[in-house]
Amino acid sequence: MQEDSQYKKFTVRPQLLESGKQSTSLVRNHSVSCGVQVVASGGETNLHAHAAADEIWYVLQGEATFYGEGDAVVAKLGRNEGLLIPHGAPYWFESSQPENLVLLRFGAKVESAGPDKRVDYAERQYIIANGVEGGVEAQVAAGKQPWPTKVLEGQFFGDA
């Protein structure tokens, strides 16, 4: 099969974790992106918003609890459930079950909202990231200690 450069095929098969969180960029172009995150205990994020990106979060495995301002529960999502978060809306989420949480994140730029910036409302808890800004290299360069992430060697989402 010949793949034309305008088409971008990707596979969702992230490594599972013992602790922490790992994010991998799967595909992107000038207006949309898709990534996968794996979250184990200790992989929560901080209250933040994306100034000019609408997001859809979709649970493939586990359970995610999303919170808004004041730690109000926005949604509790199980397998095959998703949540649309409009640009500018503050949120944070955590894995709310013992098994690894595996999430797809789809992002779409909102051109009329100006440049997309992450707006942090609380101190940022860093993650190990592959192919996306904010990963280990940026953390070390900024003098930040990376969020402790331990992988489960040889275990990947989707393996039988």
Provide a concise account of the structure shown:
With 160 residues, the chain is mainly beta.
Structural commentary:
The chain has one domain (16-148): Jelly Rolls, CATH 2.60.120. The chain has one helix at residues 136-141, and strands at residues 15-19, 21-28, 32-39, 48-50, 53-61, 64-67, 73-77, 82-85, 92-95, 101-109, 118-120, 128-130, 150-156. The two termini are 27 Å apart. It is 4% helix and 45% strand. By secondary structure, the protein is mostly beta strands. The protein is globular and about 45 Å long. It contains 1 helix and 13 strands.
Note the main attributes of this structure:
globular; 160 residues; mainly beta; 3-stranded antiparallel sheet; Jelly Rolls
Low-pLDDT segments, ≥5 res: 127-145
Task: State the total count of DSSP E strands.
Answer: 13
Helix content bin: under 10%
Biggest sheet details? 6 strands, mixed
Structural class: mainly beta
CATH architecture: Sandwich
* Cross-sheet strand order for the largest sheet: 8-5-10-3-2-12
> Termini separation (Å)?
27 Å
The SSE order reads EEEEEEEEEEEEHE
Indicate the overall shape. Answer: globular
CATH class category label: Mainly Beta
